[in-house]
Amino acid sequence: MTNRERLLLAARELFLEQGYDASVDAIISRAGVARQTFYNHFQNKECLFAEAVRCCVTDIIAPLSVQPDSLRDSLINFAQVYRQRALSPEGISIYRILISQAQRFPDLIRELSGLGDGQMIGSLASFLRHAITDGRLCQVDPDFAAEMLMAMLIGQERTQRLFGVPRQTPDESLKAEQVVDGFLRMFAPEQGA
Amino acid sequence: MTNRERLLLAARELFLEQGYDASVDAIISRAGVARQTFYNHFQNKECLFAEAVRCCVTDIIAPLSVQPDSLRDSLINFAQVYRQRALSPEGISIYRILISQAQRFPDLIRELSGLGDGQMIGSLASFLRHAITDGRLCQVDPDFAAEMLMAMLIGQERTQRLFGVPRQTPDESLKAEQVVDGFLRMFAPEQGA
DNA sequence: TTAGAGGTAGACTACCTAGTCTATTTCCGT
DNA sequence: ACGGAAATAGACTAGGTAGTCTACCTCTAA
Question: Which fold is adopted by the domain B61-186?
Fold first, then answer.
């Protein structure tokens, strides 16, 4: 493990824990590396932050494979993966840090805004578009439908976790199913068609 | 206008603009007040912050009157008010600042978490409960339904605004209607009942 | 007139932070 | 063995912040 990797790992951990306020001292201390070594590998703290955040985002928002065997099963599978990732402690932390530093790093945020939820909405929308042309869903703007589904899947839970008010989730996989079934009812093909 | 009010106003403006990093110097300077005057009225910066945030939250999340004339009209009225408030610049800023300071002020956040979205879900759920017993909606957990409606109304827009990526909203009042109509389809009474 | 409350300006302490610089050491390839 | 690249410890600069303290001012009420 190179010193650079050690620094990135320590930075990821500390930034996720403490936000951008995590000090360079703390990072090099956790990495077990000298101050100057840090500045040999990174121009400054902002560069390290940008790189660490990029790693976190691409790590958490992995591509998801939608198998078009059954519409409901595909959506439920997506729903569970999405919920699991977006509501995980890492998912919540990275969301918090992006929001709190959005004003300081507008370029970085713009660079990453296509990723995350945005990317997922895109791929989900194109999947839904096929279902619509196949008549398995009613005529509806696929982007709108995708956004509704994603919104319902996260709902109030992300906010509660961001606020540090975790609630008991006895029905983890159940919720994803409930939402998907509601979604299918909402956008079911018209009866008359 | 008393010095205390001047300080609170300046604090609200600066905290909403810059977050908790807004310095005491900047606040007293905008308030046009001496340093010692500030410490005469507030124990320290944290107390001022707590008070300013309390004002902002209670200002933005005003009670909403749901008139039970028509279910659809009531929901649309609620939807428009909720969207207008939650997506306003002040609504976005206060949401951002609460999230970014949630770890530093856990007690304050706990105190305010019942307000905002939480409070709205409660009153909306009790309204929906009546509609369910009246047979105007299908049998469903009213809290779940309320959460779904609120989630769809905000959707991805809050995130985009938090990230500073505002999108064009040509269809402002239309979106609220679309969501409410989708919601009513999702939770329509069962045909067989 | 005077005493006191509250405001003002600004110095001051104590502390933290990012980033630079220096002198020394370690280690690897030739 | 040796030379150079990279790492280390730690001092140092420059700047910012919260909060305290002192000395002075201003206005009001007894």
Answer: Tetracycline Repressor; domain 2 (1.10.357)
